[in-house]
Amino acid sequence: MNAMKMTRLASAVVTLTAATLLTVPALSAQQRGSDPEHRLNLTWDRWLDHDEIGERMQLMQRTWPDFLTLESIGESYGGREMWLMTINNPRTGAASSKAAMFIEANVHGNEIQGAEVSLYTIWYLMENYDRIAEVKRLVDERVFHVLPTVNPDGRDYFLDGTGSGARTGHIPVDSDGDGLFDEDGANDLNGNGVIEQIRKYVPGQGSYRISLEDPRMMEAVGPGQVGDWELLGSEGIDDDGDGRVNEDPIGGYDPNRNYAADWQPNYIQGGSMNYPFQLPEARAINDFMVARPNIAGFQSFHNSGGMILRPPGSAWYGDYPASDIRVYDEIGETGERMLPYYNYYVIWRGLYTVHGGSIDWTNDGLGIVSFSNELWNGGQYFNSPLLQGQQQDATSPISGQKSRFFFDDLLEHGDEYVEWAPFDHPEYGAVEMGGWKKLSGRVNPRFLSMELFHRNMAFTLYHADMMPKMSMGETSVERVGGDLWRVRVDITNERLIPTITAEARDNRVVAPDLITVSGGSEIVAAGWVGSKLRPGPTDMIDQHDLRRIVLRTGAPGRATKTLEYLVRGSGTLTIQYASQKGGTVSTSVQLR
Amino acid sequence: MRNDGKSGRWVAIASTLLSLAAMPLSVSGQNASYLDFDGLTRELRSITGGSNLASLRSLGTSHQGRDIWVVTIADPSGPPVAQRPGILVVGNLSGDHLVGSQLALEAVRYLVGAGASEADLAQHVIYVVPRLNPDGAEAMFASPRTGAGGNALAFDDDNDGRLDEDGPNDLNGDGVITVMRVADPMGPYMVDPDEPRLMKHADAAAGETGTHSIYWEGLDDDGDGFINEDASGGVDLDRSFQHDYPYWERDAGPNMVSEPEARALMDFVVASGNIAAVVTFGHSDNLVTPPNGRGELADGIGIDLNTFATASNDDLWDVGVYGVPRQQGGLRLRGAQPGSDNDPNSGRRPSMTVHAADQEYYKAVSDAYRDITGITEIALNREAHGAFFQFAYFQFGVPAFSTPGWALPSGDEEDDSPAAKGDARLLAAFERAGRDAFVPWATAQHADLGAVEIGGFRPDIIMNPPASELADLGMKHGQFVARLSGMLARVRIVNTEVEAHGGGVFTVSADVVNTGRFPSAIQHGVVARAVDPVTVQIQIDPESILTGAAKTHQITSLDGSGTRGRVTWVIKGDPGSTIEIRLRAQKGGSDSVTVTLR
Question: What is this model's ipTM?
Answer without folding.
Answer: 0.92
